[in-house]
Every structure is written in structure tokens, then in C-alpha cells.
Amino acid sequence: MKKRTSLILLLVATAMLIASCGGNGNSDVDTSVINNPNTASGVDKDAKIPIIKFDKMQHDFGRLSKGEMVSYSFKFTNTGNANLLVKECTATCGCTVADFPKNEIKPGEEGFITVSFNSANKHGQQIQTVTVGTNAQPSRYILKIIAQVEH
Asked: Is residue 74 assigned to a domain?
């Protein structure tokens, strides 16, 4: 009886798998929003994509007193040929926050992502990162701040 139940379950699972894979090739996914310039032979040079270029990706605040609040603005330029949109900035710690432009950055325009760090309740070397999500290629960038927090 056990073998028969197992066999029935296997047949039902196989039938469900076959039925789920048998499509007619049509999809409800809107492919017009997909813009991937990468091809098997490299990057499509004619693709309309934003490219974000930071002046620098890391800033060292040096020595800070505990409780000191500091900020640094990372400058970037859209060197691509389509509008750039910064979608999000996510910090690794609640002590670090990022302010970023909410509007589109046109090709050739510059912008700033301001990263603020609160050294309260911190001691010693601090390395914090902010992950920047964009519509560029690649879509994610990591900004890093460093500080030596003293008593």
C-alpha cells in the first residue's frame, strides 16, 4: 500500500510539473521595461543607459570625538546617455544616513549623495557603508565612510 501511495504521489507531481511548463510562449511580463545593454559579445554601445561616475567612493573623517556628528557629500556625474535615477540609499547602521536626489539627473549633470554619521555610542575605528541603488549599469554602488572615534 505504501508503494502504491508513493507511486500515485509521484505521478501527480510529475503531471503538475509537465502542466506548469507547457506554455505557449506568451507572457504577461511587460518586456518594454527591460533595458539590459549586456550581450553575449559585450555591452551594446548604442544602448541608452545612464552611467553614474563618483569622484570618490570612500571618505575618511579622521579622528572624531564621541558624540560628534559629521557629513560628507559624495559628488557624482551621469556620464551616460539617458536620465539617471537614484532609487535608494541603504546604510549598514542606524548611525549613518544618506540623503540623495529624488529627481532624475540628466546626462552630463552632477549630483550629490550626502552621508551623515553620528559617532554617539561608538568607539574605535568605524567603517560604515551605504549601498546606492540606481537605474544605471551596474545598478548598485557601495560608498564607504571611515572614522576613528575617541572618548
From this structure: yes
